[in-house]
Specification:
The chain has about 120 residues and is mainly beta. Helix content is about 0%, strand content about 55%. The chain has strands spanning about 1-5, 10, 20-25, 35-40, 45-50, 55-60, 65-70, 75-80, 90-100, 100-105, 110-115.
Length: about 120
């Protein structure tokens, strides 16, 4: 009942910035929290940032201080602003929406940090 579409990925040099967007549609009234995960080849998918329905945020240690998650309720969109990007940030980034105990996932957007 919830559809997520990510955008904003691409190629960026180390130290650069990128802004990811996740547009939600469907039964968005039931979403408890939304977040961003990432997965590199051979590595387990990991949580990067999360924002709750009340606006509270949380970050992985690797993202804290560099990444910022935000929400635009009018547009039903969650953003991930990524600054000071490092090569180790290279991964497919997935948007997640939590509806009770049920997770929904977007298709992913590739972020490549390389010189």
């Amino acid at each position: 009942q919830v559809q997520l579409v990510e955008s904003g990925g691409g190629l960026v040099q180390p130290g650069g910035s990128l802004r990811l967007s996740c547009a939600a549609s469907g039964s968005i009234f039931s979403i408890n929290a939304m977040g961003w995960y990432r997965q590199a080849p051979g590595i387990q998918r990991e949580l990067v940032a999360v924002i709750t329905s009340s606006g509270s945020t949380g970050y992985a240690d690797s993202a804290k201080g560099r990444f910022t998650i935000s929400r635009d309720n009018a547009k039903n969109t969650v953003y991930l602003q990524m600054n000071s990007l490092k090569t180790e940030d290279t991964a497919v980034y997935y948007c997640n929406a939590q509806v009770g105990f049920l997770p929904y996932w977007g298709q992913g957007t590739q972020v490549t940090v390389s010189s």
